[in-house]
Each structure stands twice: as C-alpha cells, then as structure tokens.
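The instructor's notes for this session suggest beginning with a concrete chain rather than abstract definitions. Hand out the sequence below and ask the class to guess, before any prediction is shown, which regions might be ordered.
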Amino acid sequence: MATEPIKDNARKGFVARLRDRNGDTRPHFVVCGSDALVYTLADELATSGRIRLTVITPPDLRPAVPDLQGLRARGVRVITAKRLDERTFREAGLAGAAALALVMPDDMVNLHAALCARAVEGDLRLVIRMFTTGLAYGVRRLFADAAVLSDAAMAAPAFVAAALGEVAPTHFRYAARTLTVARRGDVPGSSALLTLATYNDAGRMTVLPAEPDEPARKPVDLVLAEATGRPAAQAVTARRLARAGRRRRPWLSIGRAVRVGLTRKLGIAVLIALGLTVISGVLLSRFTGVEGFWRSIYITLLTVVGSSDVEPGNTPAAQAAQLVLTLAGVALLPLITAAVVDGVVKTRLALDRGEVLKVHSGHIVLVGLGTVGTRVLRQLIDLGLDVVAVDRDPNARGVKVAESLGVPVITGDAAQEETLRAASIDRCQALVVVSTNDAVNLQAALHARAAREDIRVVLRLFDDDFAQRVEAAFNINISRSVSRLCAPAFAAAMREREVLATIPVERHALLVAAVRVMPGSALDGSALEVAERPESTRVIGMTAAGSEWVDWLPDRRRVLAPGDEVVVVARRAGLRALLEEAAALPDGSAAGE
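After discussion, reveal the predicted structure:
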C-alpha cells in the first residue's frame, strides 16, 4: 500500500516535467474512436477548456459522426490514422499524456491499442470501451490504472425502461447503502433522499428542483431513494406486460401463413372451383330430390371425386348439375394439390428469409441488433417480455443471441413498411429502434405511427438537439442519444473523478459524483449550501476530511474544509462548475484540475 503514493507522485512529477518542457501546463488527453461516441466525448472534454485534447480517428468515420471541423475551431487537435499503433501514438504526443480513451467499436482494436499505448507511455490513465463482459474483466486485471466501460450496458436500461413506460432500473451502492431511482409513490417517504424530477399538470418535467413542499409532492415524481427490498415498480409492470404479451391469436397466425404461402392467381382459381362445386352440389341435391344435409354432402363429394354413375333418368337440370360438378371436381383436386405444394415451398422460403409467420400481440418490436440492441434484447427477455427483432444484417452481433433465446428475427430494412408489418407492428405494445442509422430509425418510427397512433415509440438518434425536435414534432415518446448518455461517464473516468453512477432521466443524464474540496479552492471555507444549485447540482451527502462516515443529511450551513468530500447529483454543466470551484486556484498545486 505504501508504494502507491510514491508511484502516483512519480507519475505526476514526470508528467509535470514534460508539460513544462512543452511550455503548456494543461494536462493532455487523447481520444481514439470512429463512431458517434468519439465526437460526443471530445465535445464533453473540450467544453471544460482546461485541457489539451487530441482526437485520433480513422480515415473512414461512421456515417453518424458529424464534421470534426467544429472541434478544430475550439483548439482540438484532430489526427487521421489508419492504425492505432506505437507510431501513431508517438506522433500524437502520447508520451506525457494524462489519459487516453479508446472508444473504437471493436474490442480487439481497443485492446491492441491499449498495449501499444502502454509501450509509449507506461504511466498512463486508460479508459477502454469494451462490449464483451468476460474480456472486460480480463482487461481490468491486465492494466492497473484503467477504467473499462460499456456504453451499451449504460444505455440499455434507459431504452428498456422507456419501452415499458417506467423508470430506468438504475441503482448503485455507496457507503454501505444501495440507492435506486423510483417514483415517489413506489417507495416509503422516509427512504427518499432527493427529488430527481417533478412534473407539472401539463406534463412538463423539471430536473433537480428544489425540494417541493409536502402538499406539492406527487406520486409520479422521480426520487433517489434507499433500496428497502420492496419489488421495484418496473418489475411489477414487466410481469403485467409479460402476461399480456403471452396472449396469442392463433387464427391470425393461420391467416398470415395462408397469405404468405398462397399466390393470388392460384387462390382465385381454387375459390372459383370451390364455388362451382358448392353451387352444383346444391342444384344436384335439389333436382334429384335428395333430403337431408348429410346425404347432400355425401352425393356431392362422391360426384366430385368421380364416383357418380350415369343417371339417364334424371331431369336435364339434374344431369347438367351433375356434369358441372364432375368437371369442377376434375379441376379442384389438382388445384388443391398445387396450392398445398406451393404453400409449403413458399412458407419454407419465407422462414429461410427470416419472415415471421406467427402473429404476435402485446409484444415489443426491437429494431437493431448491434451492441446496444443486444443488451436491450437480453434485458427484455430477462423481464419475461415477448420480443420480435428486426435487423437488415443477417450476421449482426445480436442475431445469434436472439436465436439462442428463441426470439424471432426478421431480416429486412426497418425503413420499409412491409418489414414492420411482418413484425406485427399494429399489435405491439412498443417499438424500440436502436440501429446506428438515424434515417432508418426515424422512418421506422414514422411508419409505426402511421400503423397505429397510440404505439409507444422509443427512438435512438445521435444528435441530442435533433432528438428533442423529433420528439416534439412527430409526437414520439422518447428520443435518446446513446453517446450523449454515456459521454459524461467516459469523460469523468479520464479525469479520475469518482463518478458513482449515471442516471438517465428521459433525455437527460444525471451524474452522481463525489467531489473533494482542495486547499485554497473557492469552496474552501464556504458553507455547504454554496455547492448546491437547484436544477443544476444537488447535495445528497458529505464526508469530513479524514473520516469514512457519510452524513446523508448534512447541515447546509456547515463550513467546508480541505479534504471534505461532497456527494452530489448534478447535470453535466453543474458538475463541471462544481469541480472548478472545488479545485485549487491557479497558484495552487492541483495541476490536474
């Protein structure tokens, strides 16, 4: 244990010498990526304005990544490299850097880049994006000073909760307490620590408000509460929805199978032959004086299959009916045989193409089986919900997972109305669209709205402002940006902040963090109430310097001292402002702040 401070001081001293040599005392951060997260993370870091930032991207960026010129205009150095190797990192000035974030969408690329980076700079804070859980555990053991995060794992609960119309199942443990997010009406009043969001009569939400007066507290308000072991509201709702999702309408499935397996022309021919058979059978029974329903059926069917005898004594009308019935039977039997064979072949081909013949009801349609979609799929199945998945790529990451879980997968373009109809979109309870293509996502959402106005749509979009405008303009329930939800946690990990959790509240991402008061900072000697700003930063606890005990109900008049640690729930801008107030002044010694 004694060697850790020595190692930490040596690293900081080495980094400080390199900064002085370069004439820039700001810490140097490097971010590597190729999709939306690299831009959002760089934007999050650049907003602080107290670091040097280098972004490394491949020549071909994902379509969702915006133009990086805006970052360059803010002083961010952008480098294009085909490979993340030692040469690339040396050219980027990684030697002496404070932290490196590897957020490429490929686990193996990130792992290889981490090994190359450590060869260039041994004392380096690594923040690595990993999807595979088992690999993430191994990487944590391999690198001492590293944080391994999964954006898919962070974002998936928010999409699941939005699909169910419930609170995101967020919980974390701190100071021997497990805290969870719930509606006020679902938890005892004594266990609620903080109001996260309130709703007025018009449905407008206010995030992190000042604590409302007792008469104004509403059961629908979101609170941060201590877990008491009671069933979560979303679990109860999931069970109810699961029971509704298991109701089947077999006749609808039979009708869909017939439509898929029978061509229009063949179907018309069969119907005409059947019509002639029925009409001729009725006439034959009438003109021959046959009485009784069963005897009429008996004579009709025998005549159809050619078992009737010549009846010269019958009236001309009866003979004409018998003749037509026999000819209709000659045509009907081959047509039925052709329809059966054609139906079997077409049904087999439809199944091979991934078309779902069974009609689902009360289910959830999930579009996109990438990293985020796979996580969402697993959580929906864990809750016992019926799911139909859609993806245009038959080799997508989550296709095999869906098959192993018994989830039907439709291979097709979700932007096409036919694909959504095959997923029984008009009978589902929610549509969750999490593919990486914003245009496809929006088209799928609009087709779902056209199919049924009251369908609950949860939509993934890259740009947060665009998501808000789409939600308002098209009456879509929830529009989220995965990278915007996760970027604050990645940025905090690079700064070695103690971010305890990220809480998604609709489009907002609230951070739970522990902020230490540095000597000579603006908070040093100020009252605790200075750290709290309604709708921006709220204090939930405090630990005095040299103590491990957390005061969950601190007196707001208490004077802060160096080393005190304040636990807050804050928005990104609020936490950034609080960290600046808690940092040492420019003439202090906190170089990393």
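Then share the key points. The longest strand covers residues 508-516. The mean pLDDT is 78.
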